[in-house]
Amino acid sequence: MKNVFQEIMTKNFPEIEKKKPTQIQDARRVPSKMNPRRQMPKHIIIKLANNNDKVRILKAARERQKVTYKGTPIRLATDFSTETYKARREWDEIYKVMQRKGLNPRILYPARLSIKIEGKIRSFTDKKKTEGIYLHQTSNARNAKGSTVKINRK
């Protein structure tokens, strides 16, 4: 597995490998048992020794947009911890409402909500502040469009 990752890095991101080679702590395939009758993606989970390496690789993959292995396009993605996953899930309700209203929200790592307000990108870690901004933005939109917006508060 480590050799596959090193090959992907040298072919797709030679500039990263030249500056500072990535140190792999652990590499394995998931699922461990493959069913020959079913077509399944062959996921490889790589644990890097340095978190900054992961950030650099994912940033380079986003910029490059097309990462390949032996000519086949592949996707590099981050694997979140359980705590990060739960923190990101807490934004779901606000995210969905904002998305329906066309505010184009984004969830950034580890668990921040980002939206574009009046041409400026703002990010929030506190849901209460985000709701206040959201209500302000939708009241401006309501005044302009004549529609109303409802948020369920818990």
UniProtKB/TrEMBL annotation:
Residues 83-128 form the L1 transposable element dsRBD-like domain. Signal peptide: none annotated. It holds the Pfam family Transposase_22. Residues 2-79 form the L1 transposable element RRM domain. Belongs to the transposase 22 family. PANTHER family: L1 TRANSPOSABLE ELEMENT-RELATED. This is L1 transposable element RRM domain-containing protein. It comes from Pipistrellus kuhlii (Kuhl's pipistrelle).
